[in-house]
What we know:
The structure holds two protein chains of two kinds.
Chain A: H1 4-7, H2 13-22, H3 24-45, H4 78-113, H5 118-132, H6 135-146, H7 150-177, H8 180-187, H9 192-228, H10 240-247, H11 256-283, H12 285-291
Helix pairs in contact in A: 3-4, 3-11, 4-5, 4-7, 4-9, 5-7, 6-7, 7-9, 9-10, 9-11, 10-11, 11-12
Chain B: H1 2-28, H2 34-39, H3 45-55, H4 61-73, H5 87-122, H6 127-141, H7 144-158, H8 174-208, H9 211-218, H10 223-261, H11 266-275, H12 279-307
Amino acid sequence: xxxxxxxxxxxxxxxxxxxxxxxxxxxxxxxxxxxxxxxxxxxxxxxxxxxxxxxxxxxxxxxxxxxxxxxxxxxxxxxxxxxxxxxxxxxxxxxxxxxxxxxxxxxxxxxxxxxxxxxxxxxxxxxxxxxxxxxxxxxxxxxxxxxxxxxxxxxxxxxxxxxxxxxxxxxxxxxxxxxxxxxxxxxxxxxxxxxxxxxxxxxxxxxxxxxxxxxxxxxxxxxxxxxxxxxxxxxxxxxxxxxxxxxxxxxxxxxxxxxxxxxxxxxxxxxxxxxxxxxxxxxxxxxxxxxx
Amino acid sequence: xxxxxxxxxxxxxxxxxxxxxxxxxxxxxxxxxxxxxxxxxxxxxxxxxxxxxxxxxxxxxxxxxxxxxxxxxxxxxxxxxxxxxxxxxxxxxxxxxxxxxxxxxxxxxxxxxxxxxxxxxxxxxxxxxxxxxxxxxxxxxxxxxxxxxxxxxxxxxxxxxxxxxxxxxxxxxxxxxxxxxxxxxxxxxxxxxxxxxxxxxxxxxxxxxxxxxxxxxxxxxxxxxxxxxxxxxxxxxxxxxxxxxxxxxxxxxxxxxxxxxxxxxxxxxxxxxxxxxxxxxxxxxxxxxxxxxxxxxxxxxxxxxxxxxxxxxx
Lengths: 292, 314
């Protein structure tokens, strides 16, 4: 795989940061992402209004100085809901990615350490199988069966992150296993587990980081879709997808309700994708050359 | 080549078997008794028992699985608990909406993505390339259901060009039926086209660096001829893989989009099945969709052989 090349670039820490700051897409993406992480954290300590407080006389107001993003059909402050919704969105995607990395990477490393054996074959075929399922369809099935909730959305999205990380870390690890320094480590008497943790893992981190940003943004889209069909976080917990679902029948009266949560989703996903693109360019100079 | 084919066929069958087991098991743990759901809370215990026997719910799980599996092999998907009609009949009805929608959106995806991707790669680092990459970067980030809501707002609510949702049926005329599928198809296609255009571009850029491209140019072939005769064809393998995967996305994405537009397709059938505890419908339709996805991926693998002659010799 082309990805294997990424793992073998060893940049010193300082120059990595400098390279990152020179990449416009990384900088733009990082700023947007940090902004949304910031507002998600901010929502724990401050929102302009109580996000669930109803104020029926002031319902469906367009954005004003008092309500920056207007109010919804119950007179709730949309800006406050967006802030708290960022928390839901990022938390679901973050945990789902953690599940994928936590299970997938060890599986991939294990398969690479035992490459060519029955174990390797079994792990990879199981991965292929999960890949064959239309992810969103099974996520809908899981959340529908076990009840709609943010937790079940996390599990449903997380399961499909596992084979992504398993396959990627196996491929990247395989190329490291052929290197001389691994041979040296083996001669020194280190076991497969220790080599995987001490030498393989640090060398495939770059590849993993790029994939993490991609899966993170896919997780946000998946959470929004599940919430939109009513299978994500349940009211009163605000979620961007649910806000969009509620806005649909009110679109001629209050278009801002349909526009604002959508823009929030797009910006978050865009930020993460730009960051991923920037990181890929930095980690893989070969790719960068071909783009110039 | 025949071993390659046999191997792929074997893994196709195993995938389908495991998929059927997983789907069956997930739905086994669903709380609630379909017989109770059909008869209501005040049902007599003996009527309930009779219905359970009639539906085969009193059988052990394994025998119900085998009955379901063999039924499907004969095209018998069971009887819907709520509609009281064969699921096969329901599926065929709903396919009349879902299949045209999938075909329409996949065609749109390819029609947009191929020219955009080829143009961007051919004019690499030009303003055109920059514009295509910028627009697709956005397209990848847009959730299709949000895009659908915006389309409804602009083209149905403000401009009144299309209806906001619903499906009048094909018997009202081809154009009337097609018209109600246009907005849903665009909503499904645009995000997918963005992904595909980016894949097409980078696959083309990769092949343009190959030695045979340089030799083709050295032989005096024009840039345009090299692009079309050599590069595009060789870039098709990764592109076809993504088209195959996108079919899966289109099926699953259609579930959401059918809900936005209130289209009576397979996706809404699954949703209604879930809310009405019509498990046989959910089980069979999900299995059918998974089958479609696995089959398409298999066909994509086969198409590699058609595109890449080197694979034929294996």
